């Protein structure tokens, strides 16, 4: 049986069955022993630790929620706890894994043909081929559903892609990218698997990024990039199908936020016990205990919401607004938690060697991606009022 983390005060991890707990224990050991020692160095250099990919592959935790010929399907709760454990050590590695095993693999699994699944998914499970997900664009973030500018034009047995994507995690080294483009014929959004060596396709690393620095976000450009019809996902006929993928993965960011909160809670708690000021460990002062308890409370409340979302996914009763509320609240709590943890460290909190500033910065990315606070607010607001408020009104003249 796996021990609950210090931040899991109600022992939610015990909801996993014994086999799932054993899998999670391996993930925890990998994160603590392999990721933690190098996380700060790679974050500082804004580089990706490619040597970890073999270790991820050995864990065999890609595609846990689907059934394979040699492995049963595990719960969404387990896949969610895997995200938590990775985020607790390094949100960058959790994001890398989520893009590959979540967004990219799920797109092919949900919307691909049987031939496409056989062609790509086994290699993705073994991490011999790394995936990315190309939806966001230079001019399209929250409104990308209606404003998608990348186009796809059918020419015989090929599709010609033109346009650009931005913020594409794993984009610089992914072997395949699931790209969403608008069909010039019917105006609908279609999905394509673009492989790394496709002529007319280029990926350029984004520079100057100050959050999730180890994640290799890329600008993608498509200039007459020719993709065979065999690489078009037949189940992707409109943005409604794109949203089927996002519905599966959206709740995962709440788990990333919970993991990050648990990570900074442990860092701050341990530091408070060791740091002596005015003749006593700072853990003995009321103001410091207030910070620690607040961080723990944020993590615990967010974990409760995230657990319920995962359970509802397993039960097939999950709705968009439930994931939106969990993501909104968890990332709001995360912002406060990392700020409090930084305060516990005082001036030492801005030193990368103490790790807390890495979480402080990474929290800003988690706060924004997979739906900003404002967008998730409007998703929940629409569900409780029955009125959509996404489109603003021009001021009267």
TrEMBL record:
GO biological process: fatty acid beta-oxidation
E.C. number: 1.3.8.6
Keyword Cell membrane appears in the UniProt entry: no
Domain called Acyl-CoA dehydrogenase/oxidase N-terminal: residue spans: 18-128
UniProt keyword annotation of Flavoprotein present: yes
Family: Belongs to the acyl-CoA dehydrogenase family.
Protein name: Glutaryl-CoA dehydrogenase
Organism: Actinomycetospora corticicola
């Amino acid at each position: 049986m796996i021990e609950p983390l210090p931040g899991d005060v109600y022992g939610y991890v015990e909801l996993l069955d014994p086999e799932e707990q054993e899998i999670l224990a391996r993930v925890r050991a990998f994160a603590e022993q392999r990721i933690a020692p190098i996380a700060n160095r790679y974050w500082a250099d804004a580089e990706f630790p490619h040597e970890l990919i073999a270790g991820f592959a050995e864990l065999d935790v890609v595609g846990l929620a689907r059934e394979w010929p040699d492995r049963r399907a595990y719960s969404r709760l387990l896949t969610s706890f895997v995200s938590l454990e990775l985020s607790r050590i390094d949100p960058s590695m959790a994001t890398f894994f989520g893009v590959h095993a979540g967004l990219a693999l799920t797109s092919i699994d949900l919307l691909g043909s049987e031939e496409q699944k056989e062609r790509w998914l086994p290699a993705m499970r073994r991490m011999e081929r790394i995936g990315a997900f190309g939806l966001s664009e230079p001019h399209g973030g929250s409104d990308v559903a209606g404003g998608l500018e990348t186009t796809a034009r059918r020419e015989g047995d090929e599709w010609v892609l033109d346009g650009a994507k931005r913020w594409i995690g794993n984009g610089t080294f992914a072997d395949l990218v699931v790209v969403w483009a608008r069909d010039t014929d019917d105006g609908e959004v279609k999905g394509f698997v673009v492989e790394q060596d496709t002529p007319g396709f280029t990926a350029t690393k984004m520079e100057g990024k100050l959050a999730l620095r180890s994640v290799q976000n890329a600008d993608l450009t498509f200039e007459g990039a020719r993709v065979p019809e065999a690489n078009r996902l037949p189940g992707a006929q409109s943005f409604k199908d794109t949203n089927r993928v996002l519905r599966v993965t959206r709740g995962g960011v709440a788990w990333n936020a919970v993991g990050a909160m648990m990570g900074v809670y442990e860092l701050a708690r341990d530091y408070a016990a060791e740091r002596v000021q005015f003749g006593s460990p700072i853990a003995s002062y009321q103001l410091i205990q207030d910070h620690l308890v607040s961080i723990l409370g944020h993590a615990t409340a967010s974990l409760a919401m995230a657990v319920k979302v995962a359970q509802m996914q397993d039960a097939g009763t999950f709705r968009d607004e439930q994931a939106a509320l969990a993501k909104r609240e968890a990332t709001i709590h995360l912002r406060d938690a990392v700020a409090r943890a930084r305060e516990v460290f005082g001036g030492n909190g801005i030193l990368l060697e103490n790790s807390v500033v890495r979480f402080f910065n990474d929290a800003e990315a988690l706060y924004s991606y997979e739906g900003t606070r404002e967008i998730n607010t409007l998703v929940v607001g629409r569900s409780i009022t029955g009125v959509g408020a996404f489109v603003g009104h021009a001021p009267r003249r």
